[in-house]
Amino acid sequence: MITCEEKMAFEPNALPTLIGSLPLSDHQEATRLILEYMPEIPLWAQLPVYPEERLLSQFTEGLPGIRGEGDSLYFDTEDPAFEQEFLSFYEQYLEVTEAGLPLKQSVFAFSGKTGRGFRAFLEAIPRAGSKPLALKGQITGPFTMLSGLKDKSGRLAFFNPQLREVVVKAIALRAKYQVEEMKALGHEVILFLDEPALAGFGSSAMVGVTKEDVISDLTEVIDTVQQAGGIPGIHVCANTDWSVILETPVDILSFDAYGFFDRIVLYKEQLSDFLKKGKTIAWGLVPTLNEEDLKSEDVSSLKTLWDGQVKQLGADPDMIKRQALITPSCGTGLLSRELSLRVLMLTRDLSRAIRGTATYK
Fold first, then answer.
1. Is-contact 9 320, C-beta < 8 A?
2. Using N-to-C axis directions, what is the helix angle for 257-264 and 299-313, rounded to 10°?
3. Which of 80, 206, 252, 309 has its CA 20 to 30 A from that of 267?
4. DSSP per residue over 56-107, as a string?
5. Shortest CA distance to 52 belongs to which of 99, 9, 111?
6. Sign of the Cα pseudo-torsion (72, 78, 80, 86, in order)
7. 274-302: per-residue pLDDT in tens?
8. Least confident among 66-75, 87-96, 169-178, 217-226
């Protein structure tokens, strides 16, 4: 008998997609390139050349007490306006969750400045030449947001219960907003939580942050995405305590397979169980963090790397392939345009080689 979980299993069969950022300044051009190279699972582009489209700034609009811009954001809980902003936030939250206010009419939707890539993407998809298997969005995850934002005294937002609750709820509804808008176009939707800061979990700077706290925050966002009909993923572009992610209900685990496979393979039993549940692993096989690596690798060498990693993982190779996404190790926003295009080409062509749809030297 087929279970409900099996019916809903997402099988990308080693199709390619990207992590999010590109080193461009034109959202229409970025969208065109994504649709050209990643037509099966395209995503909306983040262009960090704009201060309002960076890791923290793109998803902080409407948070009570948030001040500054670009990479210099902080919470000012001492501002006399903070209490009213806090109350206004929860009024809007309750209007959405209990009174039926559409998310696209709320503070949890992208504004004109932060949503240019998202709007360009939504407008382009109906005109795309072929129907995608899924559309992909992304959002900065709660741990990265809460460890990246501080108050005026330099204290991490994670350690302020008031701010922690606000940030997690805002991320959950911003993620749901993306899912709703993309599903309205008639496609499956993948939503990645980008969590680079999880590389620092367990460090001295994070003393007092428990594993249970991190899992709880991630689960609240994941549950919201799943309830909206989306497929949630978590992306970490470095090493971390992978059991944190594997103990959440997330559907896709995205990691830097080029640089950190030797660390994640230590969890191969848990990863095998993850796959047996019908879940997906996104293999970041195309290097983006070291330019020399990117210049020296080609499809053949990366395919050899994939073959070796599949063998080391020890699970059924066909299952691994069926439930794999092929991605770059991270975003390309800090690369040159030329190298970014090389990442797109290698990711596409590596996916084809793994799927056996073309022959490469």
1. no
2. 10
3. 206
4. TGGG-TT-TTEE--TT--EE-TTSTTHHHHHHHHHHHHHHHHTS---GGGST
5. 111
6. positive
7. 999 999 999 999 999 999 999 999 999 99
8. 66-75
User: What is the pTM for the complete model shown?
Assistant: 0.95
Please state, in angstroms and rounded to a whole number, the distance separating the CA atoms of residues 138 and 219: 16
The encoded tokens of residue 59 equal 């998803």
Cα–Cα dist 252/247, whole Å: 12
User: Domains of the chain (ranges plus CATH)?
Assistant: 10-58+114-355 (3.20.20.210)
C-alpha 151 chain-centroid distance: 25
> E strands along the chain, which residues?
15-16, 66-67, 74-75, 134-140, 188-194, 231-236, 252-255, 280-286, 324-328
Q: CA 33, CA 121: separation in Å to the nearest integer?
A: 11
The one-letter amino acid at 146: L
Distance CA 276, CA 274 (A): 6
Collapsed DSSP state (helix, strand, coil) of residue 156: strand
Asked whether 38 and 343 are in contact (CB, 8 A), the reply is no
Would you call 266 helix, strand, or coil by DSSP? helix
CA atoms within 13 A on the CB side of 95: 14
The string of pLDDT tens digits covering residues 328-361 is: 999 999 999 999 999 999 999 999 999 997 543 3
Cα separation of 179 and 155, whole Å?
32
List C-alpha distances in Å: 274 to 124, 253, 279: 34, 9, 6
* pLDDT higher than threshold 70 for residue 4: no
